[in-house]
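#structure-requests
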Amino acid sequence: MKYRELLDSIGRRPVFVSSLLRAGDVDEVDLGRQLSRWVVSGKLLQLRRGVYALPEAFQSRAPHPFEVANLLERPSYVSLESALSYHGVIPEAVFVTTSVTTARAGEFDTPLGRYGYRHVGPALFWGYATAPIGGADVLVARPEKALLDLVHLRPGADRLLFLEGLRLDVGRLDQQVLDDMARRSARPKLVRAAANVARLREAHGEWEAL
Protein backbone atom coordinates (compact mmCIF):
# COMPACT_ATOMS: atom_id res chain seq x y z
CA MET A 1 0.00 0.00 0.00
CA LYS A 2 1.21 3.47 -0.89
CA TYR A 3 0.68 6.47 1.36
CA ARG A 4 -1.78 8.04 -1.05
CA GLU A 5 -3.80 4.81 -0.98
CA LEU A 6 -3.81 5.01 2.82
CA LEU A 7 -5.17 8.56 2.73
CA ASP A 8 -7.84 7.50 0.25
CA SER A 9 -8.80 4.53 2.45
CA ILE A 10 -9.30 6.52 5.62
CA GLY A 11 -11.05 9.45 3.95
CA ARG A 12 -11.27 12.51 6.18
CA ARG A 13 -10.49 10.58 9.37
CA PRO A 14 -7.52 12.11 11.22
CA VAL A 15 -7.50 9.11 13.58
CA PHE A 16 -8.17 5.53 12.52
CA VAL A 17 -7.84 1.89 13.50
CA SER A 18 -5.68 -0.40 11.39
CA SER A 19 -8.55 -2.88 10.96
CA LEU A 20 -10.06 -0.31 8.60
CA LEU A 21 -7.28 -1.15 6.12
CA ARG A 22 -7.65 -4.93 6.28
CA ALA A 23 -10.71 -5.28 4.08
CA GLY A 24 -10.24 -7.35 0.95
CA ASP A 25 -7.08 -9.09 -0.20
CA VAL A 26 -4.53 -7.52 2.16
CA ASP A 27 -1.26 -9.06 3.32
CA GLU A 28 -1.44 -8.31 7.04
CA VAL A 29 2.28 -8.85 7.62
CA ASP A 30 3.17 -6.44 4.84
CA LEU A 31 0.59 -3.93 6.07
CA GLY A 32 2.05 -4.05 9.58
CA ARG A 33 5.55 -3.42 8.26
CA GLN A 34 4.34 -0.52 6.13
CA LEU A 35 2.53 1.09 9.06
CA SER A 36 5.71 0.76 11.14
CA ARG A 37 7.76 2.42 8.40
CA TRP A 38 5.32 5.33 8.21
CA VAL A 39 5.53 5.76 11.99
CA VAL A 40 9.34 5.84 11.84
CA SER A 41 9.29 8.33 8.95
CA GLY A 42 6.81 10.62 10.72
CA LYS A 43 3.96 10.03 8.29
CA LEU A 44 1.87 8.41 11.04
CA LEU A 45 1.56 8.73 14.80
CA GLN A 46 0.95 5.52 16.71
CA LEU A 47 -1.36 6.18 19.65
CA ARG A 48 -1.49 2.56 20.79
CA ARG A 49 -1.35 -0.80 19.08
CA GLY A 50 -3.72 -0.69 16.12
CA VAL A 51 -4.66 2.99 16.51
CA TYR A 52 -2.97 5.67 14.43
CA ALA A 53 -3.28 9.38 13.71
CA LEU A 54 -2.18 11.49 10.78
CA PRO A 55 0.38 14.20 11.53
CA GLU A 56 -0.97 17.73 11.32
CA ALA A 57 0.45 18.35 7.84
CA PHE A 58 -1.72 15.57 6.38
CA GLN A 59 -4.91 16.18 8.35
CA SER A 60 -8.03 17.46 6.62
CA ARG A 61 -9.28 18.43 10.09
CA ALA A 62 -7.93 18.32 13.62
CA PRO A 63 -9.15 15.36 15.70
CA HIS A 64 -11.28 16.19 18.71
CA PRO A 65 -10.09 14.54 21.97
CA PHE A 66 -13.44 12.77 22.33
CA GLU A 67 -13.00 11.19 18.89
CA VAL A 68 -9.58 9.91 19.92
CA ALA A 69 -10.93 8.64 23.23
CA ASN A 70 -13.63 6.56 21.53
CA LEU A 71 -11.06 4.82 19.35
CA LEU A 72 -8.29 4.22 21.89
CA GLU A 73 -10.42 1.85 23.94
CA ARG A 74 -13.54 0.12 22.70
CA PRO A 75 -16.21 -0.10 23.84
CA SER A 76 -16.11 3.20 25.69
CA TYR A 77 -17.88 6.52 25.98
CA VAL A 78 -16.64 9.86 27.32
CA SER A 79 -17.95 10.47 30.81
CA LEU A 80 -17.01 11.69 34.31
CA GLU A 81 -15.42 15.15 34.51
CA SER A 82 -14.82 15.35 30.76
CA ALA A 83 -18.50 14.95 29.91
CA LEU A 84 -19.59 17.14 32.82
CA SER A 85 -17.30 19.93 31.60
CA TYR A 86 -18.48 19.47 28.00
CA HIS A 87 -22.12 19.81 29.09
CA GLY A 88 -21.30 22.86 31.22
CA VAL A 89 -22.28 21.14 34.48
CA ILE A 90 -18.93 21.86 36.17
CA PRO A 91 -16.91 25.04 35.63
CA GLU A 92 -13.41 23.57 35.54
CA ALA A 93 -11.48 22.85 32.36
CA VAL A 94 -10.39 19.22 32.13
CA PHE A 95 -6.96 18.28 30.80
CA VAL A 96 -7.31 14.47 30.82
CA THR A 97 -10.10 13.04 28.69
CA THR A 98 -11.88 10.50 30.85
CA SER A 99 -14.13 7.69 29.66
CA VAL A 100 -15.76 4.59 31.04
CA THR A 101 -15.37 1.18 29.49
CA THR A 102 -16.30 -2.43 30.12
CA ALA A 103 -12.69 -3.27 29.29
CA ARG A 104 -9.72 -2.89 31.63
CA ALA A 105 -9.09 0.46 33.29
CA GLY A 106 -5.96 2.33 32.29
CA GLU A 107 -4.34 5.47 30.90
CA PHE A 108 -2.71 6.32 27.60
CA ASP A 109 -0.20 9.13 27.13
CA THR A 110 -0.24 9.92 23.42
CA PRO A 111 1.06 12.65 21.11
CA LEU A 112 -2.56 13.89 21.09
CA GLY A 113 -2.96 14.09 24.87
CA ARG A 114 -3.70 11.92 27.90
CA TYR A 115 -6.70 9.62 28.03
CA GLY A 116 -8.01 7.80 31.09
CA TYR A 117 -10.44 4.89 31.27
CA ARG A 118 -12.40 3.63 34.27
CA HIS A 119 -14.04 0.24 34.33
CA VAL A 120 -17.76 -0.28 34.84
CA GLY A 121 -19.70 -3.51 34.52
CA PRO A 122 -22.02 -4.11 31.57
CA ALA A 123 -25.01 -3.40 33.84
CA LEU A 124 -23.93 0.27 34.05
CA PHE A 125 -22.72 0.73 30.47
CA TRP A 126 -25.58 2.93 29.24
CA GLY A 127 -26.76 6.53 29.43
CA TYR A 128 -24.71 7.86 26.53
CA ALA A 129 -25.59 9.22 23.11
CA THR A 130 -23.94 10.03 19.81
CA ALA A 131 -22.99 13.69 19.46
CA PRO A 132 -21.48 15.47 16.43
CA ILE A 133 -18.28 17.05 17.79
CA GLY A 134 -15.36 18.37 15.80
CA GLY A 135 -16.49 16.77 12.56
CA ALA A 136 -17.02 13.28 14.00
CA ASP A 137 -19.83 11.40 15.72
CA VAL A 138 -18.66 10.53 19.21
CA LEU A 139 -20.17 8.70 22.17
CA VAL A 140 -20.64 10.96 25.20
CA ALA A 141 -22.52 10.36 28.45
CA ARG A 142 -25.63 12.39 29.09
CA PRO A 143 -24.85 14.92 31.83
CA GLU A 144 -26.91 13.02 34.39
CA LYS A 145 -25.16 9.72 33.63
CA ALA A 146 -21.73 11.39 33.68
CA LEU A 147 -22.44 12.55 37.21
CA LEU A 148 -23.71 9.14 38.29
CA ASP A 149 -20.63 7.47 36.77
CA LEU A 150 -18.45 9.81 38.81
CA VAL A 151 -20.40 9.06 41.97
CA HIS A 152 -20.25 5.31 41.31
CA LEU A 153 -16.49 5.30 40.80
CA ARG A 154 -15.37 7.69 43.55
CA PRO A 155 -15.62 6.82 47.26
CA GLY A 156 -17.86 9.17 49.21
CA ALA A 157 -19.07 10.98 46.09
CA ASP A 158 -22.73 10.59 47.06
CA ARG A 159 -22.27 12.89 50.05
CA LEU A 160 -23.74 16.36 49.96
CA LEU A 161 -20.40 17.95 50.85
CA PHE A 162 -18.67 16.29 47.89
CA LEU A 163 -21.43 17.30 45.47
CA GLU A 164 -21.30 20.88 46.75
CA GLY A 165 -17.56 20.89 46.06
CA LEU A 166 -18.18 20.08 42.40
CA ARG A 167 -19.96 23.46 42.02
CA LEU A 168 -22.59 21.84 39.85
CA ASP A 169 -24.73 23.97 37.58
CA VAL A 170 -27.86 22.11 38.60
CA GLY A 171 -29.85 23.94 35.96
CA ARG A 172 -28.07 21.83 33.33
CA LEU A 173 -29.20 18.59 34.97
CA ASP A 174 -32.67 17.15 34.45
CA GLN A 175 -33.67 16.03 37.95
CA GLN A 176 -36.28 13.58 36.68
CA VAL A 177 -33.76 11.96 34.33
CA LEU A 178 -31.20 11.84 37.13
CA ASP A 179 -33.70 10.19 39.50
CA ASP A 180 -34.78 7.67 36.86
CA MET A 181 -31.19 6.77 35.99
CA ALA A 182 -30.28 6.38 39.66
CA ARG A 183 -33.21 4.02 40.21
CA ARG A 184 -32.37 2.08 37.05
CA SER A 185 -28.85 1.50 38.36
CA ALA A 186 -30.26 -0.22 41.46
CA ARG A 187 -27.33 1.24 43.42
CA PRO A 188 -28.38 2.85 46.72
CA LYS A 189 -25.32 5.11 46.52
CA LEU A 190 -26.54 6.61 43.25
CA VAL A 191 -30.07 7.03 44.57
CA ARG A 192 -28.64 8.93 47.56
CA ALA A 193 -26.58 11.12 45.23
CA ALA A 194 -29.63 11.99 43.13
CA ALA A 195 -31.53 12.94 46.28
CA ASN A 196 -28.65 15.17 47.39
CA VAL A 197 -28.58 16.88 44.00
CA ALA A 198 -32.29 17.63 44.51
CA ARG A 199 -31.37 19.22 47.86
CA LEU A 200 -28.72 21.33 46.14
CA ARG A 201 -31.32 22.39 43.59
CA GLU A 202 -33.72 23.45 46.34
CA ALA A 203 -30.97 25.37 48.12
CA HIS A 204 -29.98 27.06 44.87
CA GLY A 205 -33.59 28.10 44.28
CA GLU A 206 -33.83 29.52 47.79
CA TRP A 207 -30.58 31.46 47.30
CA GLU A 208 -31.83 32.93 43.98
CA ALA A 209 -35.05 34.02 45.67
CA LEU A 210 -33.17 36.16 48.23
